[in-house]
Amino acid sequence: MTNREHFGSRAAVIMAMAGSAIGLGNIWRFPFIVGEYGGAAFILIYILCSFLLSLPILLSESIIGRRTHQNTFGAMNTLAPGTKWKWLGLLTMVSPIIILSYYSVVGGWSFAYLCKAVSLQFRPENAETVTGMFGTFSSSTWGPLACLTVFLGLTALIIFSGVKKGIEKFSKISIPVLFVLIVAIAVYSLTLPGSSEGVRYLVKPDFSKLTADAFSAALGQSFFSLSLGVGTMLIYSSYVNKHENLVASGAGTAFFDMLFAILAGFAVMPAVFAAGIAPTSGPGLVFETLPFIFAKMGSGGIFISSAISIIFFFTILVAALSSSISMMEVGVAYLVEEKGVTRGKATLGIFAITFCLGILCSLSFGVLSDFKLLGNTIFNFCDKLCSNFLMTLGALLFSIFVGWKMDKAAVREELTNGGSIRFNSKIFPVVYFLIKYVAPVTIGVIFISGLLA
Ligand code: PFF
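# 4-fluoro-L-phenylalanine complex -> structure
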C-alpha cells in the first residue's frame, strides 16, 4: 500500500477524528440527557465513561487501522486471515451505510432550515407557526428528498476529493469554525434574561439521579458521540503515519468532542429556559423549539433573529457533514482497495446505496409512516438498530479482538511507536488492561442486559 494517502499532521488527525465525533449527537442529545440524569454528576460519569471505556475502544480501532493501513475489511483479513473476524470487517461496512442513510435525512433538514433562516422565515410574527412548520415539512415528499440529495451530494463531493484534499482540508477548516460559532451562540444564549435556570439545569449536581440507567445512557451517548464500533475511527487511523502518537490523538479527539458537547449545552439550554419552554431532545429541540425561540428573539430586531438562526443551522449542517464524510469513507475505501474500482466510481456507488435507503428513511415521516418494522418507522428502526445494537456490538468485538486475538507485542508497538514514546510505554499496562478486561466486560454486560430488557 505505498500510494495510499496520509493525513499531514497531528492537527489534521485530531481535526478529522473530532470532525467525525462532533455532530448531531453533541447538539441535540447531550444537553438534554445531562439535565435529565443529574447535571454535573452526569457529566462526571460521562467523562469517566469516555476515558475508561470509549477511549480504549477508539484506541483499539486506531491500533488496527494504523497497523494495517487498510480499509476495515482488508484490515481484519490481514490481521486474522481466514477467520470469522472478517465478519467484523463486514459489520463495519454495513453499520456506517445504515447510519449515513438516516443521518443524511437530518443533515438535509438542517440544509432546509438554513435556507429558511437565510430567507428570513424565522421572524417574530411567524413565531407561533414555526413549530408546526417542521411537521409539515418533514412529512412532505419532495422538499426533504431534494435536501437529502444536496446533503449526500456535498458529502460525496468532499469524499471524492480524497483524504488530504477532501477530508483533511474540510476538517481543518470546519472544526475551528464550529468551535467559534458554538461559543458565539453560547455567549448570546447566556445573555438572555432567565438563562440562568438553563445553566442550573446543566450544572447542578444531583447524585440521586445516577442510576444504572444513567450509566448506560452515558456509555451509549459516549459511543455514538465518538463514532465508535462502526469502523470510522479505524479507517481514519489507517491514514495516520507511523510517527503519530495514537494515544495523544485519541485523547485529543475525546477531549474536543466533550468540550463541544458541553459548549453545545450552554448554547442550547439557557435559551430554552429563557423562553420558558420544557427541555427536549432530538428533532423536536432543533427544528421546533429552537426556531421558535429564535423567531421570538425578534424583539432584538429581525436582524438578530435571522443572524442567530443562520449561524445555528449552519453550525448543525457543518457538524453533520464532518460526521457524514467519515461514514462514507469506510465504504469508499473498501470498494477502492478490495474491489479495485476508482475513487469516483466507489463514491458514486456508496452515494447510490445510501441515497436509496435515505429515501425510505425520509419517506417514513410521510407517505411511509404506517410502514413499521418491529413496531418502528424505518427511520427509527435504523436508528435503534445502529445506536442500541450494532455500534455496541462492534465496539465489544473491537476490544476483544485487540485484547485477546492480536499479539500483545504488536499492540504495544502501535501504542508506543516501538517503545519510542516513553510516556505511552509507562501507561501501556493500564491502557492494555482497560482494552483487554475493563472495556469488554463492562460493554458485554450492558450489551447483554440491553438484549434481555
Ligand atoms: N458522532 C456523530 C454524532 O455525534 O453526531 C455520529 C456518528 C458519526 C455516528 C459517525 C457514527 C459514525 F460512524
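# post-check
The first helix runs from residue 10 to 21.
The chain has a mean pLDDT of 94.
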